[in-house]
């Protein structure tokens, strides 16, 4: 599938990531007792990001998940752990593609996208690292829902 | 809030049942309680700090509550919760899992209309609409909600029992090179690849090609 993220055109499949997440969604979200805080969707929603900033925000987010989230999401359940590592591998390949757009200057980071990502990091750092990582993983469908609107 | 000692068994199996984003909260009565149990319902937007009571579902004796209006923004996710009351006693609040209207809804089959010539069928498909508060409200087709929405179409030759399957993205399909004067039955399904959502197949719509001129 071709994703149109501002000036960046990326061909990728989120179906595999989606299937992996669906398999562990109930397990992961049940480990997150905090209903009143979201990493990705509040106070500002991803869905309000301007089209021109989509690539930069997406690139930031995939890097965020690879560098900060997956490594802190080990569980006692080997099935869940396998699914998490397969999702992480898919994220690595998507991030590489987004990185290519970055190198070709098709991934401009405007003030809004930088501000948006700062807010996400602030939400993340407001929790202890394991809770923050598990909450972020439980919000993967928020990221995918937003990405898939750009098909 | 003046609630009494909560030793009543809890409502069970509290969950959203959603079709075309008509999102209805359902639950089962607490174990071992006969008639007379009353319930109240609250819901919250994930990531926002407060629970909101649903007045129309306060002190109700039925075991469902329509929260479609409250959960109509499918860019948000939600929790809902139910509490039971009987003879001055109450249960704990029992919560759903996190509800994502976009991925956790079931989609109805498409509407199918068929016309024929002597050697072909023309099939037109219409995706269902997203639930809306009132007939006057603007209709939103699920096609707009799911950019990757496709149709799987099955065409059966009633005489030879031969069946063809087509997978199309736009909503019209012409099936050529058919036999004149023959009955064909058409059925269609909606397929969304991601998030992965498949409707059931529609009822069969049978029509005969015209006899040879």
UniProtKB/TrEMBL annotation, chain A:
SUPFAM superfamilies attached to this UniProt entry: 4-helical cytokines (SSF47266)
Top-level taxon: Eukaryota
Keyword field: Cytokine, Disulfide bond, Secreted, Signal
Functional note: Immune regulatory cytokine.
Organism of derivation: Origma solitaria
Disulfide bonds: 8-101, 55-107, 56-109
CC annotations in GO: extracellular space
GO molecular function: cytokine activity
Record carries keyword Chloroplast: no
PANTHER family named among the record's database cross-references: INTERLEUKIN-19, INTERLEUKIN-19-RELATED
Name of the protein this chain belongs to: Interleukin family protein
Keyword Transferase: no
């Amino acid at each position: 599938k071709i994703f149109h993220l501002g000036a960046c055109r990326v061909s990728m499949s989120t179906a595999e990531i989606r299937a992996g997440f669906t398999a562990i969604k109930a397990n992961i979200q049940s480990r997150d007792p905090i209903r009143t805080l979201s990493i990705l969707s509040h106070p500002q929603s991803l869905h309000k990001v301007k089209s021109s900033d989509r690539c930069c925000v997406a690139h930031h987010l995939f890097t965020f998940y690879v560098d900060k989230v997956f490594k802190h999401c080990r569980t006692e359940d080997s099935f869940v752990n396998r699914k998490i590592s397969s999702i992480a591998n898919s994220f690595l390949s998507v991030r590489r593609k987004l990185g290519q757009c970055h190198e070709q200057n098709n991934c401009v980071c405007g003030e809004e996208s930088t501000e948006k990502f700062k807010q996400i990091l602030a939400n993340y750092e407001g929790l202890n690292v394991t809770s923050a990582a598990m909450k972020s993983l439980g919000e993967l469908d928020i990221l995918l829902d937003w990405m898939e609107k750009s098909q | 809030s003046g609630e009494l000692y909560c030793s009543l068994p809890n409502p069970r199996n509290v969950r959203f049942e959603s079709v075309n984003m008509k999102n209805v909260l359902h639950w089962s009565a607490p174990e071992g309680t006969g008639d007379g149990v009353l319930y109240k319902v609250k819901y919250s937007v994930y990531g926002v700090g407060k629970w909101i009571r649903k007045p129309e579902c306060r002190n109700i004796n039925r075991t469902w509550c329509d929260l479609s209006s409250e959960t109509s923004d499918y860019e948000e996710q939600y929790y809902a919760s139910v509490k039971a009351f009987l003879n001055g006693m109450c249960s704990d609040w029992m919560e759903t899992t996190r509800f994502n209207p976009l991925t956790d809804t079931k989609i109805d089959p498409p509407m199918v209309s068929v016309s024929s010539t002597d050697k072909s069928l023309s099939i037109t498909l219409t995706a269902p609409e997203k639930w809306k508060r009132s007939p006057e409200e603007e209709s939103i087709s699920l096609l707009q909600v799911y950019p990757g929405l496709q149709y799987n179409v099955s065409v059966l030759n009633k005489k030879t029992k031969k069946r063809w399957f087509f997978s199309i993205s736009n909503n019209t399909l012409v099936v050529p090179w058919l036999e004149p004067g023959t009955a064909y039955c058409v059925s269609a399904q909606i397929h969304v690849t991601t998030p992965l959502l498949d409707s059931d197949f529609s009822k069969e719509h049978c029509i005969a090609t015209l006899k040879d001129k």
